[in-house]
Amino acid sequence: MFTRRELFGGAIATFIPENFVDISDVRDVPDNQEVFVNVETDQSIIVEILQHVNTDSDEAAIRHHFMALAADNDAEEHSDIQKVELAAIPRLPPDVPKYLLLGQQLVSKFRETDPNSRNLLNILMALIRLPNHNTDIVITYNIPILIGATSSSRQTAREGNLFEGMEVFNRVLTEFEVLSWDLFNA
Q: Can you list the domains of the chain with their CATH numbers?
């Protein structure tokens, strides 16, 4: 089941699975992010409003955002982009560039140092480009598909399924809409 969630003070809305909790109820989240986590699977959905990245192409921009995430995850050497394609996000204007990326990263939760603590994540990433507002919206769905033997997630989480994750992500994107474009004029 999904619940319609208003994001960024009601300026954006989409549907998020009911079993995903708003992490801002537990800890501080930067103002440019909305973060939802399924504590049983360690899956997360993150919506970020970022500065527009100037690249040669929109495809290069989503690759840039994926590699920035890899750097944040200390996974630069353990990341792989498998596919980039145009995304269907029907509630946005047709002239807005939209891309979808499927990739993988090998990351350690909480910066655990044991190599056996790394978790293999499938990462679904969508990029919505708003150059007139100097903004990129990045939506990321992290799905652990292999949990490391010594990972702190080993006791509480279970491994996810890419195909189920793609269905969830498709629903998030299908229902994604901007309710107030003024959000990007601030």
A: 38-170 (3.40.1000)
